[in-house]
Amino acid sequence: MAFSIYDFNTLTSSIHHSLSQHLSPTGVMVAEWTLIGISFLLFVAVFGLFLVYLERKVCAFFQQRLGPMRVGPWGLLQTIADFIKLLMKELILPNRADKFLYNLAPYIVITVTFMAIAVIPFAKGLQALDFDIGVFYVTAVSSLGVIGILLAGWSSNNKFSLIGAMRSGAQIISYELSVGMALITMIIFAGTMQISGIVEAQRAGWFIYTGHIPAIIAFFVFVIAGTAETNRGPFDLAEAESELTAGFHTEYSGIKFAFFFLAEYVNLFIVAAMATTLFLGGWMPLHFGHWVGFNHAMDFIPPIFWFFSKVMAVIFLIMWFKWTFPRLRVDQILVLEWKFLLPINLVNILLMTLIVLKKWHF
Amino acid sequence: MKGLFNYIIAIAKGVKTLVDGMRVTGYYFVRPKLIVTQQYPENRDTLKMFDRYRGEVTMPHNEKNEHRCTGCGICELNCPNGSIEIISKSIEVDGKKKRIIDKHIYHLAMCTMCNLCVKSCPSNALAMGQKFEHAVWDRSKLTKVLNQPGSQIMQDIKE
User: Fold this and answer.
1) Is the minimum CB–CB distance between B37 and chain A shorter than 8 Å?
2) How confident is the model at residue B154 (pLDDT cuts 50, 70, 90)?
3) Taking CA atoms, what residue in B is nearest to A318?
């Protein structure tokens, strides 16, 4: 199996060839689906746990603490221990809960996460689905998550859960608009909705640089609205610990709670990955105009490393928000969306259209 | 037009306050030396509690095994939860009867570290110690006699 870390198409085609020698075309398809599914499961589990660890550490350093230090060196195995504990816990069904919906909700949430992660371009050729409407697909799929949250809140037979779920519904439906508008701004600039096409268009320069002012505004709007979409602080009033115990997942325990928890962190990854893909050049290395030597040196760093370092930078920014700002009230959240982000976004789209028409971009 | 101007000013002010807040947390993030967490069992040898920490009531003795307690019982009266018991005895000094301390009994298990005994002592005989590892297997070990055996009162203490 020959493959180069700079182009994963070599790896996928060699796997395809070796499978076709032994299996029928249908068998090859099923085997490839299974392989993709297993790799995504592994990725979500490992990366989700890593993000939980990272969040606890980053939060601790912001608050002049050390964070987890006991399990493993620097507490590295802490989240694994937590996960094992969650797996062994009893699954509790609240009295008079709607049993079917109660059990269905975590699966909807985690399924939506898996559906969204399918279009993320990790590196050249390392993308499960490459639609011509990729960006549209992400917005469509990510908005399904709110159904799982609403179901969880409704079926738990608990007033805190219901209040949390309704808040989350109001919030996600509002902020979806901003996410969509910010994406539309970049689609206008890129001229395509295909994710691989968008990444390829940033070979000469990342969109946040070539699209200058409107792209920078759209980037910040996207990060703010994306934070709100994932129900993270300072927009975490859906699970506001001090008011609602834990919001929509108050009544969940064990692996069902772990699903909600994992989905939240993988959604954080998806928002960061979409911001990376649309604004920061995806897996494209950093290039400066005519610095041939510098550009060549940057090309030696593998694309997958570029992708993950950019994603980590965005994730760190979002964590920085969370551990700095206090939680917003419900009315403040809606004011921020409808009075500030949405008008800014609409003006920003006009500005971007003008720039594209006049060719004022780099 | 004025409304639009105020709107933009509001956004600019909002962004400024957000950046201010993030600068504060960012300052702490890049300075790990400011971390206040103590790695307790590992740093047991070097851990020093603060002077104002109240771990237990002690009675300081000097190198000649002398303390400052006259056995007046004011600390016992002032203790809100009865953690202190004074047992005094009479001795004859120069033909005069004199009351001195026999046992200053201190129940650590009942003490709330309120500091009232230290504050109210007229002869400054008591002090708060910084020791905090008080776990024992037997409850009776929490009842302590503060004046050391064979100790005397300092000569300069007035009755």
Assistant:
1) yes
2) confident
3) B22
Give every CB contact of residue B154 below 8 A, 6+ residues apart in sequence: B62, B66, B67, B68
Q: DSSP assignment of A286-312, as one string? A: P--TT-HHHHHHHHTS-HHHHHHHHHH
CB contact at 8 A, A74 and A66: no
- Model confidence pLDDT, tens digit, residues B1-60: 888 898 889 889 988 999 999 999 889 988 888 888 888 888 888 888 888 888 889 888
| Inter-chain residue contact B22 with A64, CB threshold 8 Å | no
- CB contact under 8 Å between B28 and A320, yes or no, is no
Per residue in A338-360, pLDDT (tens digit) is: 888 888 899 999 988 888 888 87
Chain B residues within 8 A of A325 when measuring between CB atoms: 18, 21
Given a cut of 90, whether residue A70 has pLDDT beyond it is no
Give the total residue count for chain B: 159
Nearest to A223 by CA among A315, A323, A120: A315
Residue bearing tokens 């902020």: A175
Q: Which residues of B touch A348 (CB under 8 A)?
A: none
- In angstroms, the CA B153 to CA B159 distance is 11
Query: A294 touching B, CB under 8 A?
Result: no
CB of A65 within 8 Å of any CB in chain B?
Answer: yes
How many residue contacts between A and B have a Cβ separation below 8 Å? Answer: 36
At position B123, the amino acid (one-letter code) is S
Output the average pLDDT for chain B. 86
CB < 8 Å to B16, chain A: none
Which class for B91: exposed (0-12), middle (13-18), buried (19 or more C-beta within 10 A)? Answer: exposed
**Torsion sign, CA atoms A15, A19, A21, A25:** negative
The CA-atom distances, in angstroms, between A227 and each of A40, A55, A222, A231, A265 are: 23, 14, 8, 7, 11
Cβ contact (<8 Å) for B35 and A323? no
Please give the torsion angle defined by the CA atoms of residues A40, A44, A46 and A47, in that order, rounded to the nearest 10 degrees: 120
Which residues does chain A have within 8 Å of residue B26's beta carbon, measured at their own beta carbons?
Answer: 320
B36 vs A contacts (CB less than 8 Å): 64-65
The average pLDDT across A242-262 equals: 81
Nearest to B29 by CA among A75, A60, A321: A60
Tens of pLDDT, residue by residue over A162-213, are 888 888 888 888 888 888 888 888 888 888 888 888 888 888 778 887 778 8
pTM recorded for the entire structure:
0.82
**Residues whose CB falls within 8 Å of the CB of residue A98, separated by 6 or more in sequence, listed in order:** A154, A155, A157
- d(CA A293, CA A278) in angstroms, rounded, equals 26
Helical residues (DSSP H) of A245-302, grouped into ranges: 254-279, 292-299
- Whether the complex's predicted ipTM is more than 0.90 is answered with no
* Contact: A64, B36; criterion CB under 8 Å: yes
Q: What is the pLDDT of residues A97-108, one digit of tens each?
A: 888 888 888 888
